[in-house]
Amino acid sequence: MMAFTHIPVLLDECMDALNIQPGGLYMDATAGLGGHSAQILANGGKVLCVDRDPQAIAKLHERFANHPHATIIHGNFFDCKRILHGLGISSLNGILADLGVSSLQLDDPSRGFSLHKDAPLDMRMGNIGQTAADAVNTLDERLLVDILTRFADEPYARRIARAIVTARASAPVTTTLALANIVRDAVPAAARRDKHPARRTFQALRIYINGELDRLPAALDDMFDCLAPGGRFACISFHSLEDRIVKQAFARQCQGCTCPPDFPKCVCGKTPRGRKLGKPRTPGQEELAVNPRSRSAKLRAIEKLDTPEAGKDESVVKIAF
């Protein structure tokens, strides 16, 4: 058994939000190295460990080999309903989705996620599809500007995009340090003083090639639909774009009557499907001291209410698990 040094983010807060029930069925929708999954199992739950990364799946099989209550699934949480349908499962007691890049991906230079280590410019979470190098070397300047602006709010998006296009005209940009150096040289000197100036560029490219935000709103709604009444959904985001989408998705589920306030009675018939579980949670000083990568993490949680609409989704078939 190999050693796992990964520190799961907001572990205690996640377990508190999920309120693990002995024998309950949970999905760790972005299982990574299995830190959260292991704690769900330790608290008496059964867990579906889902991840799109084949390297993570291999690690999960190793970690939970022969564990009777852990099921490893190579898949994407965007396809939550299809995954459950394939297993013949109708609903879950809880779902955890950690939307961040895993330590496995960050710490492996060959994956190309880190701007501090020279490696092929990859950044794919699932090892399929176009790479960051493909995007950097083929997208036109206007689209590069749009990606940097939309997905990272990069103030120097135009300067960086122009520098990329100029550099690739001489030779393809194929490595992480090559891109990092292009960005560094493109921004004003004042922008190089604190955090690495390429940090936003790497974030934007990663989000773009992995489609992290495009399907996220629908995926959050689908995962909520997969909960049994009383089931809980905990979601960890790591930047403002993700958190805004999570916040809006949870607000939709908690929204009740939408009739104008001057109506004498409700005619829309809408009732809340969920309730928020307190305020967003962030890491405390103790966690930050041992896991600085958790500094931008934010946990939101919601519970599905027992409403007349609950359980009407017939897209999955109920069986014992």
Describe the secondary structure blueprint for this structure.
Elements: H1 11-18, E1 25-28, H2 35-42, E2 46-51, H3 54-63, E3 70-74, H4 80-87, E4 92-98, H5 103-107, H6 132-138, H7 141-152, H8 157-170, H9 176-186, H10 199-210, H11 216-225, E5 227-237, H12 240-254, E6 274-276, H13 285-290, E7 298-304
Parallel strand pairs: 1-2, 1-4, 2-3, 4-5
Antiparallel strand pairs: 5-7, 6-7
Helix pairs in contact: 7-8, 7-10, 8-9, 11-12
Textual characterization of the structure:
- The chain has helices at 11-18, 35-42, 54-63, 80-87, 103-107, 132-138, 141-152, 157-170, 176-186, 199-210, 216-225, 240-254, 285-290, and strands at 25-28, 46-51, 70-74, 92-98, 227-237, 274-276, 298-304.
- The protein is α/β, with parallel strands linked by helices and 321 residues long.
- It folds into 2 domains: 11-99 and 230-304, Rossmann fold, CATH 3.40.50; 111-210, Orthogonal Bundle (DNA polymerase, domain 1), CATH 1.10.150.
- Strands 3-2-1-4-5-7-6 form a 7-stranded mixed beta sheet, sandwiched between helices.
- Strand 1 (25-28), helix 2 (35-42) and strand 2 form a beta-alpha-beta unit.
- Helix 7 crosses helix 8 (157-170), helix 8 crosses helix 9 (176-186) and helix 11 packs across helix 12 (240-254).
